[in-house]
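Dear colleague,

Thank you for sharing your sequence with our group. We've completed the structure prediction you requested, and as agreed, I am returning the results in plain text so they can be pasted directly into your records. Please verify that the sequence below matches your submission; if there's any discrepancy, let me know and we will rerun it promptly.
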Amino acid sequence: MKRFHLPALLLILLISCAGATTLNRIRFGYYPEKIRAALDFDGSFIYSLDESKQKIVIHLPKTDAAPEISNYIELSDLIVRYFEVEKEDDGLKVSIPLSEPIPYNIFSLNDPPRLVVDFEREYTNITSGGTVIEGVEALKVTKASESGRVNANVLKIDLNKAEVVPALARKKKPNLLESFINLINPWREKDDNNHFYRARVSDIAEEQGSVAAINGTYFAYTGKPLGTLLIDKELVSSPIYDRTGLIFTDDNHAYIDNILIDCYFNAANGVRYDISGVNQGRGKNAVILYSPAWGERTGTGNDGIELLVSNSIVKEIKIGNAPIPPDGYVLSISGPPAQFVTDNVKVGDRIDTHIKIIPYSTSPMTILHMISGGPRLVKNGVVYVSKFEEKFKADIAKGRAARTAVGITREDKILLVTVDGLSRGKNNRSSVRESIGMTLEELADLMIDLGAVEAMNLDGGSSTTMWINGRVVNQTVSGSQSRVSNALVVRQRF
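Please find the predicted structure tokens below.
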């Protein structure tokens, strides 16, 4: 990854040749965009190069080192760790190990005679981490700028050979110790009223029989997903601010688009009622649809009425905390709309409920799965960070952090990406090799480097996790996995 340096293995520059030359000193200059090393000589010199991705070796025949020249000159920099000066044959050898392939430029100057090596601070290295299963390749990314270093992990997925599916965390079964504690402490607080749960990405992935997974969209502390989540055509939660979503269709294609959902039901007499939310707490003057994904019961109070619907027929009308039919749903209504419903709906009536998912600009076929996140990062191959349009607060919109993102390439491959951030409790990086995280704009640039023409952000920070074949491959900010509400899991397609 060199640039503009003299091209051949034994290319020799002869400034003038008159006996032995002395290497008087090695100087270093540190700049935002580069590190410059200058080798100063007392007269004319010749040199040749041996180069590889791991090391640069400069041969200086007919050259001696001044007494002040150390054999080992430590830099301890992200770019270059040290210079080593050794005698060889009738001259010197200067070895420069590289932490990884980086762009550099080597050239000579006169007056005074010196050899200059410029190491660029900005680079992006993408290397293969091997095949996970057919159609799924792991990639490792190191990216550096004047701000510091970033480490990222990538899964590149062919949807014709593997599937990517959103999955919810499930209730964790108590282990032997927990069962014993619950037995001797019956007054202990139970989670029976919970409707959603949180679990480690690895637990969600293993339960789903997956080979890989990343964390999914945002969620409340209760585990409730925040934003659109559709799994196997079942709507689990509804949109927030029409934010960006990732759509999977039943013909193995993917789309990224902003999502609007039109949700309502018609009574038998044709009266229409707009549904204000799906699987969420019911406030005042609301119509909420509760599906089996919410749990066994709605958990609502007695300040509303609830229609139990199976096969589009109202089977029962209750007041609060109704059981959710496994083959249907509950329409829970509070406030003035409840009176109108009781006047227009009775047991045995047919209810036509419509949930229409409306992407803003794409036209996918039958939508199988969908997960929202945001903001959008890339649109039509260019950076498009819609953090203000999608009303994200500063904790997500500003600054560097661990990030999770998903992208779609021009070849319709899926990119699942995690970016490591600073370890929790470290305001400044403790090591030049520690990943500093990314801004949303930097993340958008990375997604384009990886080939994305469409990309969006997912939940990040302590949630950011990538799991492959039984192992977490990224550096989590807390040193261990956080419990999340949902994940995107990767499975072999049969």
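Summary note from our side: The chain has three domains: 21-120, 145-258+363-492, 268-350.

Kind regards,
the structure core
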